[in-house]
Design a protein that fits this description.
The protein has 153 residues and is an alpha+beta fold. The protein has helices at residues 3-14, 37-43, 53-60, 66-77, 139-152; strands spanning 21-27, 32-35, 49-51, 83-91, 97-108, 114-123.
Length: 153
């Protein structure tokens, strides 16, 4: 069985998750990732199989977050780190930027080169803006407020 087939099988098993969470599995060598139909609709992706995944996703990242997103991706794909955990804003199919936390992990092949990059994206919408205990703004709310201030200036 080829690694693309394995990616598809793994993806089918793990893709049934709650609304607002999206799983991806990328064959790094082929540059193809698998996404659920819900993710395709929510983000306006070109299909359930996305070619040149990094370029497609980078184009959807908010301009204020692109530099840091690039740094995070470079650290993972150059094997400085084996994982990715980053909160940023991403554009949905409606053209709105929404707060999102991306988590991912690199799986190495026998040669030590990246084989699979798998992870999740969690959209932070409809949540309470303030923490229930401290009543301070949550991080996602803070990002939204900063973005709104930047747009006004």
């Amino acid at each position: 069985m080829q690694s693309t087939d394995i990616n598809t099988k793994i993806f089918e098993i793990i893709s049934n998750i709650p609304d607002g969470q999206f799983i991806f599995v990328e064959n790094v060598a082929a540059g193809i990732s698998n996404w659920s139909r819900e993710a395709v609709e929510y983000f306006g992706l070109p299909g359930i199989n996305v070619f040149n995944t990094k370029e497609v996703m980078r184009a959807m990242v908010h301009p204020d977050d692109v530099e840091r997103w690039d740094q995070e991706m470079e650290a993972v794909f150059s094997l400085q780190r084996d994982g990715f955990f980053y909160t940023y804003q991403i554009r949905n199919a409606k053209g709105e930027y929404v707060p999102c936390t991306g988590k991912g992990k690199i799986i190495l092949g026998e040669s030590g080169a990246p084989l699979i990059f798998a992870g999740s994206m969690t959209i932070h919408q409809g949540e309470e803006a303030n923490d229930a205990i401290t009543d301070l703004p949550k991080f996602q709310s803070f990002l939204k407020q900063v973005s709104q201030v930047k747009k006004r200036n």
